[in-house]
């Protein structure tokens, strides 16, 4: 879903990140808001004031979005669902939950946490707008508060549309889930609504573009994003359920090919990467697992340097991101792979290397299992 992400700072114990797609959006918002203020406000201000106002309001919008996501995150943390962090991206923000809520009640409260914050913000900004207007404050302050109030209201209303993965879709899922006690069925229903709503936005956007409104392209892209996200969430849930109760031992290759730390990079590429076609190899020294080496880590080493540099200089020590215990749930392995972008994990038993589990093997099992489950 995301491209390159940058860590910004911690808020209330959550890591705030910005996806690369967010930066042009700040500029776009600043630019369109300064244009808007130029039309709405007194024309006598200095040119820079419209720009500053545009920028400050754009930042105000994103602060509102961060607060909305914090609303979800704080409730999620209280209900035992770990949060990966909050990421700002082209369509706003997202609080990344690493797991499903444990009960319909948790789901409902986590889903409603964000919109409640937006409601409070909308009331606050629209109230402040009314007051400042009545006491005849400077028009740039009044205008800025009005925009912030309206946008928070729009965020609230849009998110309450019952199309999963929008908040309204999650609320609906929690209601369906408590009604029938089947999370998988509830997810399927709301994902279908989500995918349908995405399709509606795509058609709406395309019709707009045809009639000459090129700004409507936005809706088409948003629709495509929501449609994909709805379908992906359902598939992920199915995957997670299919893998539940199966341990990593069941899927691993018990005879992993490992390299020694004294292997040169040249040998690694010629005798391992080109022969076995793996992206990552465990590094073993005297029967002891000491880390992993992947081609991403050595890509930047020039070809004439590769003969005298060794694996030991580049190896990555064992961590939760590349190593997993043999008795761990396979669903956990899948979520580590998706979060860390490592498609192969080293499997250990009593800290000794006993195998390798790969995304490809998990997927093969899942696609077989899906074929027998389809209804
Ligand atoms: Zn939300």
How would you characterize this protein structure?
There is one protein chain. With 375 residues, this protein is of the alpha/beta class. The protein has 3 domains: 5-160, no CATH class; 183-243; 248-373, CBS-domain (Roll), CATH 3.10.580. Helices cover 58% and strands 15% of the residues. It contains 12 helices and 9 strands. A 4-stranded mixed beta sheet has the order 1-2-3-4. The chain has a 3-stranded mixed beta sheet with strand order 7-8-9. The longest helix is centred in the N-terminal third of the chain and has 32 residues, at 47-78. Bound molecules: zinc ion. Zinc ion (ZN) binds next to α2.
Q: Given the structure, what is the number of helices?
A: 12
State Rg.
Answer: 25 Å
Strand arrangement in the largest pleated sheet = 1-2-3-4
- CA(first)-CA(last) distance: 28 Å
The biggest sheet, with number of strands, parallel, antiparallel or mixed sense and barrel status, is: 4 strands, mixed
* Helix/strand/pairing category: alpha/beta
Low-confidence stretches: none
Ions, cofactors and other bound molecules? zinc ion
What is the beta-strand fraction? 5-15%
> How confident overall, as mean pLDDT?
86
Q: How many structurally independent domains?
A: 3
Outline, from the CA principal axes? globular
**In which range does the helix fraction lie?**
55-70%
Order of helices and strands: EEHHEEHHHHHHEEHHEHEEH
Record field, number of beta strands: 9
């Amino acid at each position: 879903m995301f491209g390159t992400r940058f860590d910004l700072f911690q808020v209330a114990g959550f890591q705030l990140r910005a996806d690369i797609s967010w930066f042009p959006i700040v500029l776009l918002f600043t630019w369109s808001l300064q244009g808007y203020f130029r039309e709405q406000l007194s024309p006598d201000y200095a040119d820079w004031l419209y720009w500053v106002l545009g920028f400050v309001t754009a930042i105000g919008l994103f602060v509102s979005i961060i607060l909305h996501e914090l609303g979800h995150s704080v409730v999620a943390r209280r209900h035992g669902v770990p949060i990966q962090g909050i990421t700002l991206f082209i369509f706003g923000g997202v609080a990344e939950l690493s797991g499903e809520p444990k009960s319909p009640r948790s789901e409902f409260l986590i889903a409603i946490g964000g919109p409640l914050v937006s409601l409070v913000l909308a009331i606050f900004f629209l109230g402040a707008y009314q007051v400042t207007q009545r006491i005849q404050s400077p028009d740039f302050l009044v205008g800025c508060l009005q925009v912030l109030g309206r946008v928070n209201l729009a965020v609230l209303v849009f998110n309450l549309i019952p199309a999963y993965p929008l908040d309204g879709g999650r609320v609906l899922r929690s209601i369906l889930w408590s009604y029938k006690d089947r999370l998988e069925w509830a997810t399927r229903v709301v994902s279908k609504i989500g995918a349908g709503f995405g399709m509606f936005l795509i058609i709406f956007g395309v019709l707009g573009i045809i009639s000459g409104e090129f700004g409507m392209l936005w809706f088409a892209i948003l629709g495509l994003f929501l449609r994909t996200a709805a379908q992906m969430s359902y598939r992920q849930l199915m995957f997670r359920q299919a893998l539940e109760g199966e341990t990593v031992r069941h899927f691993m290759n018990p005879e992993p090919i490992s390299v020694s730390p004294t292997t040169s990079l040249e040998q690694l590429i010629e005798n391992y990467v080109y022969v076995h076609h793996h992206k990552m190899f465990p590094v073993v020294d005297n029967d002891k697992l000491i880390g992993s080496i992947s081609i991403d880590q050595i890509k930047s080493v020039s070809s004439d340097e590769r003969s005298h540099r060794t694996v030991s200089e580049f190896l990555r020590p064992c961590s939760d991101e590349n190593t997993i215990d043999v008795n761990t749930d396979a669903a956990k392995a899948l979520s580590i792979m998706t979060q860390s972008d490592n498609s192969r994990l080293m499997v250990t038993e009593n800290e000794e290397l006993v195998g390798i589990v790969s995304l490809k093997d998990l997927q093969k099992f899942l696609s077989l299992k899906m074929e027998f489950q389809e209804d």
